[in-house]
Amino acid sequence: AKKEAKKLKIYTATFWIVLALCVSLMAGIVLKAPITNLSARLTTALKVGDHKVSAVELNYFYIDAITEYYNQNSSYISYFKWMDLSKPLNEQKLDPKESKTWADNFVELAINNAKTNYALYDAAKAAGHKLTDAEQSSLDALFDNMKNSATVQGYESVNDFLESIYGPGANEKTYRKYTEVTLMASSYYNAYKEQLKNSYDEADLRNFEKGKIKDYNTYSYATHYLTVDSFKTGGTKDDKGNVTYSDAEIKAAEEAAKKAADELGVPANGSLEALNAAIEALEKRLEAEKEAAKKEEEDKKDEDKSESTDKPEEDKTDSTDKKEDDKSESTDKKDENKTESTDKKDENKTYSKAKEQEQRYTALSATFKDWLSDDSRKAGDITVIPYETETEKDGEKVKSVKGYYVVLFQECEDNSFALANVRHILVAFEGGKYNSATGQTLFTDAEKETARKKAMDIMAEWDILSGQNGDKNEDLFAKLANKYSTDPGSNTKGGLYEDIYPGQMVKPFEEFCFAEGRQHGDVELVMTDYGYHLMYYVGESETTYRDFLIAADLLNQEMTDWQTKLNNAITVVEKNTKRVERDLILNDLLMGNHRH
Fold first, then answer.
1. How far apart are the C-alpha atoms of 141 and 66, rounded to whole Å?
2. Where are the beta strands (DSSP E) in 134-238?
3. pLDDT in tens, 543-580
4. Cα separation of 409 and 40, whole Å?
5. Cα 321–325–328 angle (5° rounding)?
């Protein structure tokens, strides 16, 4: 009985030990996620001014920085192969020569974004700035939509949805705080910018313009570039197929390129048509010279071969003579066919054209900037300018000519023309087929015709209403724009766009705005890639394009100085950034497989 009692006691003790271990193990499994989440929320990653930024909040800045960067540069990333979307960011270097990874880059960007946002947030609070009703509504709508998104994508809660994107600890409360900070920062930045923009007067613009009068001119010109490499001949090829040229051969190529450029850069070629004709004539002549040189080289080879061969026997048989005759006839026939083929090829061949350009002074190439902007320059002036590069050789800087630019001056515009004010009613194309290769939606002729007819119906309705009021007035057009236009940017403002500047709108829209002789009340139907626009010209703006450019530069400079001052006044101390997901794979994030 004692032995059995002792055995039972041992079993009982073992049972409770095992049970305790099981409970501990299960607790570890169950509590691991909550503990990790809590730790992420309690861990201070940064101290920005008086603000403690948790690991979770830094992850918000980090993931959003990556997403924004990708959205802005997706085409370049794939084309230039900046990064591999299928590999962790911390395993890819920005520059093979450096140790900095893409993960390091985005962490730095996240920290800088946190600094900028909190600096603006503090400034907004100090200034008593409040979100507008529209901004507050958009904030509330964001979280309402987030609940729907979480449900649609199969998550039990918004917290689970946020955690799938931003990692452990992400939840609605912390994300709302992050969003409120960034939205307040953006709101105050825009409000301050608008206030500053509206404060400028004529004296401010003229004072800023001093010393940079040419900066706001636009220059129209055409160029044709002749590279020295295309004139190189001879050369020595090594066993790897690389060709090197002697100094004498390079010098000869430079002289040939200069001679060809000088041939084009004569006063007689002072128009685009004349210059293009001269370019074609030059290329034809250079081709002919190249073919002649090639033929001469082949003839010389044949001659050398003939001399090295024994003289043919005089007593050739008739059979041999016949073969030679047949061969000669065959060769003649081939030459005839070759000539016909060459002629046909020449007919289809296209030749180079001078490249037409229109640029602000600040964007002009340093190679011909001074020549183009010379105050004495007039339409039709033409010149030849060498393009040189500088390299270091034996401790000295050596210049070498890479080519020659033939530059034709056409016009200098001081941009003192007025901006345009217009109203429009957009009837967007409907249907269409999306082309994933081009990123465009293509519409059939029938779909386009449907939109055109609808636009014409609106015009007819306007005619009827105008007839009742005696004239085609602007107010009636505005009412129809609010009723029918599909353009969200203007269909609550009577279709109005003010201060339209060159390059702002799509080309057909812009051509209507700046057509010569345009008068108030002019109406026209214009087609763009978006649909049909019923255009109404309101009139010229009080602002010139030149003053618009000056004000934009002044505003940009003052906003940059202001933002720099705010950033310099706030300190950032890194505490614990280990929880940032540096091994994130971008494809997983983009494809929605992130942390599922």
1. 24
2. 218-227, 236-237
3. 999 999 999 999 999 999 999 999 999 999 999 888 88
4. 63
5. 135
Which of 174, 169, 165, 173 has its CA nearest to residue 34?
169
Rounded Cα distance, 256 and 234, in Å: 14
Tell me which amino acid residue 480 is.
L
Rounded Cα gap, residues 554 and 205, in angstroms: 8
Q: DSSP assignment, residue 313?
A: P
- Quick one: average pLDDT of 428-442? 87
Measured CA to CA, the distance from residue 461 to residue 455 in angstroms comes to 10
Q: What are phi and psi of 261, to 5 degrees?
A: -65, -45
pLDDT digits (tens, 9 = 90+) for 100-129: 999 999 999 999 999 999 999 999 999 999
Between the alpha carbon of residue 230 and those of residues 248, 284, 588, the distances in Å are 16, 14, 47
Is the sign of the CA dihedral 156, 157, 163, 165 positive or negative?
A: positive
Task: Characterize the bridge pairing of strands 243-244 and 396-413.
Answer: unpaired
For residues 448 and 472, the answer to whether their CB atoms sit within 8 Å is no
Return the structure tokens found at 260.
């060809």
Residue 383 has pLDDT above 50, yes or no: yes
Residue-wise DSSP of 324-376? HHHHHHHHHHHHHHHHHHHHHHHHH------EEEEEEGGGS-TTTHHHHT-TT
Say which DSSP state 232 is in: -
Q: Which of 366, 418, 415, 412 is nearest to 389 (CA)?
A: 366
Predicted TM-score of the model (pTM): 0.77
Q: How far apart are CA 414 and CA 218, in angstroms?
A: 6
Q: What is the mean pLDDT of the chain?
A: 87
Those residues with Cβ within 8 angstroms of residue 181's Cβ, 6 or more apart along the chain or in another chain = 117, 118, 121
Determine the Cα–Cα distance for residues 265 and 120; give it in Å rounded to an integer. 55
How many CB atoms lie under 10 A from the CB of residue 85? 18
